[in-house]
# Entry
Amino acid sequence: WTVMIGGYVQDGHSEEALNLFQQMHWESIRPDGFTFVSVLKACTRLAILEQGKQIHAHIIKNHFESDIFVGNSLVDMYAKCRSIEDARKVFDKMQKRNVISWNAMISG
# Structure
């Protein structure tokens, strides 16, 4: 599932990636951090903030909010979707930050 979702996003088929993520959810398959990173990238490319917020809720529900890669992707998605306040909230809650975290926040 994750490889297919990532492949769709990488090839510029973000809507198909989101559809596959939805199907994954319907089939009760638990996503991992890599899945969330890819799905957030799809939301970022399509600039669909509301879908990104729904993915964020799934991240919290599945206990991936402490994953630095997921956190970086959330900051990037919120910043690029022009929700700087949400980007800052995620950034401030991150337990660990790296140069990617800072770059995502600064570029927003």
User: Anything to note?
Assistant: DSSP finds seven helices and no strands in the chain. The chain has a mean pLDDT of 96.
